[in-house]
Design brief:
- The chain is of the alpha/beta class and 303 residues long.
- The chain has two domains: 32-171, Nitrogenase molybdenum iron protein domain (Rossmann fold, 3-Layer(aba) Sandwich), CATH 3.40.50; 178-302, Nitrogenase molybdenum iron protein domain (Rossmann fold).
- The protein is 44% helix and 16% strand.
- It has helices at residues 2-30, 57-66, 98-104, 118-126, 139-152, 156-172, 201-208, 228-234, 245-254, 262-265, 274-278, 284-295; strands at residues 32-36, 42-46, 52-54, 108-112, 131-134, 182-190, 193-195, 211-213, 225-226, 238-242, 269-272.
- Strands 6, 7, 8, 9, 10 and 11 form a six-stranded mixed beta sheet that branches. The chain has a three-stranded parallel beta sheet with strand order 3-4-5, with helices on both faces.
- The longest helix is centred in the N-terminal third of the chain and has 29 residues, at 2-30.
């Protein structure tokens, strides 16, 4: 009799098990978000996102706006703000410590165009890791990136609010009377002379500050090397340096002919926090505000 009952129930049990497995598979599929990052790459992100690893400082600053500190599982050597980020496990990104990345088991890795090579991206993907790549060409692009990342990690409202606030802060700079019709060159380093090119995000920052980028569009690179002859030719009204006055001193000691520049003659050298200026993320507004303040005065008052 027992065998008979088992034989009668077995088909029902098998059907029930099959339906349960099918529902489980459907649930698993439904918990995976398919998205397109800012380089046009299709990525598949497990939901809910609970473990995020930013692999550059600007991405880290964005994620700090969008998620709880407990969700960030690591940091790079460049990540320094807010101070609690220093307690997170350190992940070297030059070169990329692939083993450490895997150990941290992130649901999502966030980085910026140019920070990871194609080979590194392929390797991370082959390990089943989702990588969202940002692209920072202008202010609207950065704002859109903040919004999109909010959607990807399940923080749509927070992403939208942060994106709108970021854009509004830049829009408000237009209400400040600027030294219009003047140009500026952003100096990254003095040996060799690396500058913020026309295709870099700084061109848009300067536009909001009422300035034009002295590095013209004939140079395609975002962060090109130029010589002193080129700087003398474009002769910017302002020079912007990341960091302190010693950055400018190094440039003029190495290239004394640059003392002929209008910016040098009129003492129009601006010193902006390097972390703000070099990271195309939420903190960029601080650099823009400082540039705007220092260039909004009439030129004769800045001597």
């Amino acid at each position: 009799m027992l065998k008979y009952i088992i034989c009668c129930l077995l088909p029902t049990l098998l059907i029930s098990c099959h339906e349960t497995c099918k529902e489980s598979q459907q649930e698993s599929v439904s918990q995976e978000l398919t998205a397109v990052d800012e380089l046009g790459r299709t990525i598949h992100v497990r939901q809910p996102v609970q473990r995020i690893l930013p692999l550059c400082a600007s991405s880290e600053e964005t994620m700090v706006l969008l998620c709880d500190s407990s969700m960030l599982v690591g940091r790079t050597p460049e990540c320094s703000s807010p101070t609690w980020i220093l307690s997170k496990p350190l992940v070297n990104n030059y070169p990329l410590d692939m083993e450490k990345v895997v150990t941290l088991k992130p649901d999502l890795i966030v980085s910026k165009e140019g920070m990871l090579s194609n080979d590194q991206l392929k390797k991370l993907e082959s390990l089943g890791l989702a990588v969202y790549m940002q692209r920072a060409d202008d202010i609207k692009g950065i704002a859109a990136s903040i919004k999109k990342l909010g959607e990807v990690i399940g923080q749509k409202d927070k992403g939208l609010d942060a994106s709108v606030k970021f854009q509004q802060q830049f829009d408000s700079l237009k209400n400040i009377p600027h030294a219009s019709s003047f140009s500026a060159a952003g100096i990254i380093s003095s040996d060799p002379i690396y500058v913020f090119g026309y295709s870099s995000y700084l061109t848009d920052v300067l536009r909001y500050c009422g300035l034009t980028n002295a590095i013209d569009s004939s140079i395609a690179q975002g962060f090109p090397v130029v010589d002193q002859e080129y700087l003398l030719k474009v002769n910017p009204d302002f020079l912007i340096f990341p960091g302190e006055q010693k950055e400018a001193q190094e440039l003029f000691v190495k290239f004394p002919l640059l003392k002929r520049l209008k910016a040098y003659q009129l003492h129009h050298c601006l010193y902006i926090n390097g972390d703000w200026l070099s990271r195309p993320g939420p903190e960029l507004i601080k650099a823009a505000i400082e540039i705007s303040k220092q260039t909004s005065l009439p030129l004769h008052e800045k001597r």
